[in-house]
């Protein structure tokens, strides 16, 4: 561990801005869970070390809204934001607007991150951003309720989950009419793309578009996956689940009103908080299999420096600092943000606070990427078309087979002569 940290020892020369005097760097931060609070605290630590000032720009909660705002800023070549927080699927969309960090960040620092995430941030040889934290979908469950209803372990398949959720829900509703078996992200946005990707892959239904760019969504297993998810609505999941994002699902689970929840790792720290009614009663497991495999969608966020920044040296210094082992360790312990540095998964302090980081390490390292690489600049259109098709099935507007057939036609139109 000492060696890994040493790789990131930021010298006074690097931390100090090369500009004459102190400068102000504007950092765009997300606002889901503890995200904004921890972003501000990390930025403040850098500011104290360097004498510079950080202004935090609060981004919209929903990733789709955030991307739209970023695209407006970047298209206008605005210098208002120096450092952007980027979703792992955005580098291909936004690469032209960001500084190439190759050569500006020592190779030892770059190579200390998971190779797959560095690859996702590299577009045509250009390192668009540095990884800040990684994500993968997880299954949260109430350990006390599984025991109460005679279940010895978390469900291994979606069929098992449905049966367990129904039994627990029926029992708990005798004293709590608001109780649900399973909550997840069903709102029509990027979060639904993530959830539905997990269903597809777990049933053996492919990844919408394969690595060569071929449209693969129109198949029986993909249709079955969507129909299965639709069967949960108004059964083990509330009717309102089709409007839930991450925070809506977390709020219900954390209030003690659900047996199971699909969410990202950040929910763990909040679930153990003082205001949580389920603190000490939460278990974490891989998401169930649909018969093919367990599947978790790769998520995570990176930090990139805008090409239009007037303080690029200071902005790069801030990015290096925030993505360092010291900062990633703080974020892992206090906010359950998964490090992008393999060495930190052996850190005893991190594992003591987040025991599942060790046991579910393979979930994070084998997470399934959304098809942003093969669809390039058209990924956002692909994702929106996919989440809309899934939403139509969840809301009973069409069956899975009809939806995947229509989606294949829509994607062919988006593809046109190529991605």
UniProtKB/TrEMBL annotation:
<protein>
    <submittedName>
        <fullName>ABC transporter substrate-binding protein</fullName>
    </submittedName>
</protein>
<dbReference type="InterPro" id="IPR050490">
    <property type="entry name" value="Bact_solute-bd_prot1"/>
</dbReference>
<keyword id="KW-0732">Signal</keyword>
<keyword id="KW-0813">Transport</keyword>
<dbReference type="InterPro" id="IPR006059">
    <property type="entry name" value="SBP"/>
</dbReference>
<feature type="signal peptide">
    <location>
        <begin position="1"/>
        <end position="22"/>
    </location>
</feature>
<comment type="similarity">
    <text>Belongs to the bacterial solute-binding protein 1 family.</text>
</comment>
<dbReference type="Pfam" id="PF01547">
    <property type="entry name" value="SBP_bac_1"/>
</dbReference>
